[in-house]
Every structure is written in structure tokens, then in C-alpha cells.
Give the backbone structure.
Amino acid sequence: MDRLKAAEANYKSYTPINGVVEPDFLEYLKETFRKWQQYHKEGVTLGSREIAKLSNMVAGARLNSRFGFEKLAKRFTEEEGEEWFSLLIYKNREELEIDAEPLYCFASRIHR
């Protein structure tokens, strides 16, 4: 959970990786999660339509990248009852399977 809270604060410092995550896609992710974090602060619920749109964009970016990447997207409730959505991007499937440190970790709390 600490990694998610750190990601919620630190995603602005992420830089693109040539051939894996392109600059325009990274900016899209930063802006999307910034808006979602603002929704939480304003008490607006994040809907499944926004999550589906993000999932489609990530799938398209994955296909479009030269070397590809693996993603892990989760919507879950933590022990304190707070709901979260996270997107972890790994360089390849092996890193995802061994639970290595992701290249990027985006997270946002979801207002209920």
C-alpha cells in the first residue's frame, strides 16, 4: 500500500522510455490520474466508463510500442475500506510474474 501512496504523489517525475512508453502516452496517463485524484478530492465517484476508456488506451499503446510492455490494472478495497485503482507497467511478462519493481506505478483513490 505504501507503494501506491508514493505513486499517487510521485507520478509527475516519470520520464518516457524510448520504444516502451512513448512521451504522449505517458502524458496521457499523468493527466488521467491527476484528474482522477481530483475527482476523489471533490467527492466525485470514478465510473467504470473512465476505467474502460483507460484500459482501451493502454491496450492500444501496448500494441503500438516497439518493444511492448505488460500492464497490471486493479480496482480494489484496502484494509481500511478505502477503494483504489492502480495501473502498474512492467517492461515484460517475466518482471510482472516475479513481482519486480514496475517501470511505472499510477494510483488513485476512488470516492464511494
